[in-house]
Design goal:
The chain is mainly α. The chain contains four helices and no strands. α1 packs across α3 and α2 runs antiparallel to α3. 23% of the residues are buried.
């Protein structure tokens, strides 16, 4: 249970930080960061995956999953920052996205763990 709390806390912290930074930046910067992380994941997948099918994937698979997970969090924060930019101040954007992301991710992780 503590692991679920920590993972959801870290994910929502990254989401709120991205939304906070996007609220003060140009609209295209979050998109560029998301595309760069997705491209890095694809490069890692094709460059570091073993050539023989029966070999263990090793750390390359975890690097690929991590890059795509970060791209999803940065993309989500980018969208939330753009949507909430006109209604809320940057500090309120960080609070709303952190609390909403923490509650949502903890509920989803708990539901997934116990079903």
């Amino acid at each position: 249970m503590l692991t679920l709390l920590i993972v959801s806390f870290l994910g929502s912290a990254m989401l709120s930080l991205t939304a906070f930074l996007q609220s003060e930046a140009e609209w295209w910067k979050g998109l560029v960061a998301t595309v760069a992380l997705l491209a890095f994941g694809v490069v890692v997948l094709f460059a570091m995956v073993p050539e023989q099918p029966n070999e263990q994937p090793g750390p390359a698979l975890f690097l690929f999953v991590g890059a795509w997970l970060c791209a999803a969090l940065v993309g989500g924060g980018w969208i939330l920052g753009l949507l909430l930019q006109r209604r809320l101040s940057p500090g309120e954007i960080a609070k709303v996205t952190f609390l909403g992301g923490w509650v949502l991710s903890f509920c989803l992780l708990t539901f997934n763990a116990f079903t």
